[in-house]
Amino acid sequence: MQIYNRLKFVPTKKEINECGISSEVIRYYFGTYKEFLKEVGVTKDKDVKSPKLVEKHFNREVILKQIKELAAKLKKIPTKEEYEKKYGKIVGLRQYGGFSNLLELASPILEKGEISKVEIEDIYLKYIKENGIPSEKDLPKDLPQLKIIKKYFKTFKNFLAGIGYVESRAAFYKMSKEELICFLQESVDNKVLKLPKDFNLNINLPFWETVKFILNCETFDEMADIIDRQELNEIRYNKYTRKEVVMLYKKLSDKLGKMETGATIRDLELHHRALIPIIFQSYLEV
Q1: Which residues contact 36 (CB under 8 A, 6 or more apart)?
Q2: Exposed end of the chain (fewer CB within 10 Å): N or C?
Q3: Collapsed DSSP state (helix, strand, coil) of residue 253
Q4: Rounded CA gap, 145 and 164, in Å?
Q5: Can you spell out the DSSP letters for 132-165?
Q6: CB 120 within 8 A of CB 78
Q7: Long-range pairs, 265-274, Cβ under 8 A, ≥24
Q8: Per residue in 98-135, pLDDT tens?
Q9: Any long-range contacts for 257-260 (C-beta under 8 Å, 24+ apart)?
C-alpha cells in the first residue's frame, strides 16, 4: 500500500522490485502479481489504458480531499467523469447522496484562494461567449458557484456588469476577433471612440473587459496597434506637457512599487508605450 500511495498509480513489477520486494517473494506468498495487488486492495481499471488506482472502499474524507485537490488543479469544480478518470469509481456512491452532494460537502472553490477573482472572470467570459449568460438560480456545476461570486462581487448582477455583460451590449460577446476589429476601426473613424473611458461611458461601444478578452490585449495602446489605429495614441499623448509626462512616469513607478528604482522601459511598453518617445524627446530638447 505504501508503494502505490507514494507513486499515485498501480506500480509495475519492476517498481515493486526496486522497493525491495522480489518477484520470487510475490510468487511464494501470493502466486501471481495480480493476486498480490488484490491482497493490498488495488486492481487495474480495465476501462482505462493506463494503470489507475481503484480502491475497494473510499471513505468520505478521502473523497472530499481528492475533489478539492482536483478542483485546485483544474481551476474549476470537477465533473464526475473527471473525478473517475483521475481516481477511479466510488464504491457505494449512493450512501453519500450522489456525486453532486459530495461536491457540496467538498466546497472545492471557497475563500481559501483555490480560485482567484480574475480566474472566475475568465471562466465565465469563455462560457458566456460560447453558451450565453447562465441563470443565477441554475449555474452549471462546472462553473464557480454563487457563493464565491458573491464573495468577490456582492451580487451576480454586479459580477456580470464587472465582466462587461449587460443586455444592451450583449451582441458584442458574440463578435469574432475580426468583427470586433472592424467595428472598432469604424468607431475610431467616426470619432465615436477616442479615449479609454469611452468604452464604459458610451452604450454603443463594448465594455473594455469585453475588448480585452476578445482581442487578447491588456492596454489601450495594444488595442490601438491591433486595430491599426495608432492615431488613438497620438490623441491621448500629444496634449501632455513635459511636467505631466514626468508625473505620469512617477505614478506608474509608484503603482508598480518601483519609486526607488523607477519604472523600466519594459514597464512603459506594457502600460504607457506611447510615452517612451515623448519622454526621450522632451529630455533631448533640454
Answers
A1: 26, 29, 30
A2: C
A3: helix
A4: 19
A5: -PPPTTS--TTS--HHHHHHHHSSHHHHHHHTT-
A6: no
A7: 270/218, 270/219, 271/219, 272/221, 272/248, 273/219, 273/221, 273/222, 273/233, 274/221, 274/233, 274/234, 274/236, 274/237
A8: 777 777 777 644 444 456 777 788 888 778 777 777 77
A9: none
Grid cell at residue 230: 495608432
**Cell numbers found for residue 198:** 469611452
What cell was used for 217?
Answer: 490585449
Q: Cα–chain-centroid distance for residue 22?
A: 46
Euclidean distance between the first and final Cα of the chain, in Å?
76
**Taking Cα atoms as reference points, which of 152, 61, 56 lies closest to residue 106?**
61
Cβ burial, residue 204 (10 Å; 0-12/13-18/19+): exposed
Give the tens place of pLDDT for each residue, 208-246.
888 888 898 888 888 888 998 877 766 555 555 667 667
pLDDT of residue 86: 84
Residue among 166, 163, 184 nearest 175 (CA): 184
Cell of 258: 518601483
Say if CB 33 and CB 26 are below 8 A apart. yes
Query: How many other CB atoms sit within 10 Å of the CB of residue 156?
Result: 17
What is the pLDDT at residue 55?
Answer: 43
Name the residue among 66, 193, 89, 132 with its Cα closest to residue 124: 132
